[in-house]
Amino acid sequence: MENLKAIIIDDEELARSLIRNYLKELPGIQILAECENGFEGIKAISELNPDMVLLDIQMPKLNGFEMLELLESPPEIVFITAHNEFAIRAFEMNAVDYLLKPYSRDRLVTAVQKAAERIRTGKREPEKITGLVQQPLAETLERIVVRSGSRIKVIPVDKITRFEAQDDYVMLYTDEGQHMKQGTMKYFEDHLDPAKFIRIHRSHIVRIDQVTHLEPYSKENYILKLKNGTSLKVSRSGLKSLKDKLNF
Amino acid sequence: MQNPFLSNRKSFITYSGIWVLVMGFHVFLLIISERVTIGFALADGIISNALFAAIGLGLWFPIFFSRSEKEKILSSFINHIFACVITIGIWITLSYFLLYSLFGSQTADIAFLRSSLPWRAGIGILYYGVIILVYFLMIFYRTHRENLVKESQLMTLVKESELSSLKSQINPHFLFNSLNSISSLTMIQPEKAQEMIIKLSDFLRYSLSNKDEKLTALREEINNINRYLDIEKIRFGKRLVVVMKANEACYDLKLPGLILQPLVENAIKFGVYESTEESVIEITSNCNPDALSITIRNAYDPEFPYKKGEGIGLKNIRSRLGILYNRDDLLTIRKGPDQYEVNIMFPQLK
Q1: Distance between CA B206 and CA B194 in Å, rounded?
Q2: Under 8 Å between Cβ of B79 and B67
Q3: Between chain B's N and C termini, which has fewer beta carbons within 10 Å?
Q4: Which CATH class is domain B214-347?
Q5: Under a CB-based contact definition with an 8 Å cutoff, are residues B171 and B265 in contact?
Q6: Residue A82: which of B173, B236, B301 has the nearest Cβ?
Q7: Which of A42-56, A124-138, B264-278 has the lowest mean pLDDT?
Q8: pLDDT digits over B296-337, tens only?
Q9: Residue B210 burial (CB < 10 Å; 0-12/13-18/19+)?
Q10: Which residues contact B20 (CB under 8 A, 6 or more apart)?
Q11: Which of A61, A82, A156 sits opposite B274 (nearest CB)?
Q12: Are A83 and B301 an interchain contact pair (Cβ–Cβ within 8 Å)?
């Protein structure tokens, strides 16, 4: 194995020391830093530029996924967590491996070797999902983390009135303002609570309780009006889902 | 409920069939006695028995609607004597006048009719008794069957709730994270790993005992919380700070078992899980002879809303309190700008 530079991110000291001790005798791997939370993690990753990150999911302030979302080009990720319900989302994010706590030294070494292999071959296609996955698709989003300049902001999904597609980004609108977030409309459509949000157009997702009424605009074209006065175009399939959900 | 003889075709046919047999027997007896004309014998058999068959169907209602558990045997007996007298009175009067209007001119027949009235009363009592008995047996059988079904449903429910309460008691993530910490400790501090295994075992043993069915002394619940918190302290280190203000004078007061641990777990979830700094969990107990009050407080960061997982645990506790104390005002939650507080009052049952 080449010299592999790694960072450990876990909020529990004992969990970090286990990884450190497991990897101590493994040649060719160098631990650059240990971080206690997502904020430290982002800082360390952008400053030290590691090859791989051993990442916990459940962490204070910024969880593992939220931290990853904020990285422009993330390194190889091995998730290490006690939660089996995030496996699908982890592989959606192109993780190398997903370890369930507690795990053996051999299991960790296999994961590290997989990461090394990926780096060596430059292959980054998703792994086949096996074994772990019992739960249906990952849970719905509760909050969304955005970056504004050097600041990181956490926005509760309940405060977001609508999402709008803008090239490679999605604009999130709240009553206080708007935030740009890297991602696709499809991702948000899949991970938002379908009882609260509805996709009405290729470029628009709105919160259902913000809808006031639907206005005809021209033949077979409709405009959706929101509480704050915004008017949005409704596509044909959007109209259908509006009819299904709200009995228009 | 509908009369069982009318509820389906088969039982109605059986009922009618039996009356036809009785009718035939009645006619047969009259004919071989040679005291009446054949016409009278036929008419008497048909009228008397058809009338009683109809009245018999009607007897279902007083029985079914007076079937209250509270009714005393004596009063129910008296009621039946009254009902019996009235029923037979109506029956004899009606059949007498019907037969009289048909055979009034045949003196021998009418004389027989008059002389047989006491016999008719006797037979009426017999019919009444048999019909009532059959009804009671049917009701008894039906209730018995319903009870069997209900009982088996109840058993399934109890099993399910036991299972789910077991599941909700031990959070699997807590367990796996603790095991991971132990795995780590075995490499660096084996004695501490051993200590944690013992604490975890004690905690599991307490959680798996059926304590949630009965009331437990506060002392035991506090001990269990301390074990739980000790384990979490090993995991979270300096991030978890516990302030225990348990008033020892309250230690013998009673509360439902395993009710505090989920609350402390919640407090840790919303406090420590989401905090990078020290996070304080404060547990206070106060009491008077009539009630025990427990308050669990934790700080939370309002900048980082995290509401997942809230609800189910508290809902369980609320429903347990409702079942045990028959009150819904015992659990109060106060959510301040940066502090979350749960208070439970446990009335002391005498």
Answers
A1: 18
A2: no
A3: C
A4: alpha beta
A5: yes
A6: B173
A7: A124-138
A8: 999 888 776 655 545 677 877 887 788 778 888 999 999 888
A9: exposed
A10: none
A11: A61
A12: no
Nearest by Cα to A198 from A144, A143, A145, A160: A160
Statement: residue B70 has pLDDT above 80: no
- Say if domain A4-121 classifies as CATH 3.40.50.2300: yes
The answer to whether A12 contacts B177, with C-beta atoms less than 8 Å apart, is yes
pTM: 0.66
User: Chain B residues with CB inside 8 Å of A60's CB?
Assistant: 272-276, 304
Residue extent(s) of CATH 3.40.50.2300 domains in chain A: 4-121
Query: Is the model's pLDDT at A29 over the cut of 90?
Result: yes
Sequence-ordered list of residues with C-beta below 8 angstroms from that of B247, at least 6 positions apart, any chain: B285, B286, B287
Where along chain A do the CATH 2.40.50.1020 domains lie?
143-246
Strand partners, B294: B285, B344
- For the ranges A46-60, A154-168, B59-73, B138-152, the maximum mean pLDDT occurs at A46-60
Helix, strand, coil share (%) of chain B residues, nearest 5: 70, 15, 20
Measured between its terminal Cα atoms, the distance across chain A in Å is 62
Record: contact B307-A142, CB cut-off 8 A: yes
Provide the shortest C-alpha distance from residue A14 to chain B (in Å).
Answer: 5
Query: Which of these CATH numbers, 2.30.30.40, 2.40.50.1020, 2.60.120.280, 3.40.50.2000, describes A143-246?
Result: 2.40.50.1020
- The residue whose two tokens read 């129910």 is B76
Q: Which residues of B touch A61 (CB under 8 A)?
A: 274, 276, 301, 304
Test the B interface: residue of A9, A11, A14 with most B CBs within 10 Å: A14
C-alpha distance from residue B310 to each of A194, B161, B280 (Å) = 20, 20, 19
pLDDT tens digits for range B230-253: 999 999 999 999 999 989 999 999
Residues B189 and B222: beta-carbon distance below 8 Å:
no
Encoded tokens for B185:
């400790």
Coil, strand or helix: which one is A123? Answer: coil
ipTM of this complex:
0.77
Q: Measured between alpha carbons, how far is B106 from B27 in angstroms, rounded to an integer? A: 18
CA dist A179 and A161 (Å) reads 12
Instruction: Report the C-alpha gap between A112 and A97 in whole angstroms.
Output: 9
Quick check: A35 pLDDT over 90?
A: yes
For B89, the 3-state DSSP assignment is: helix
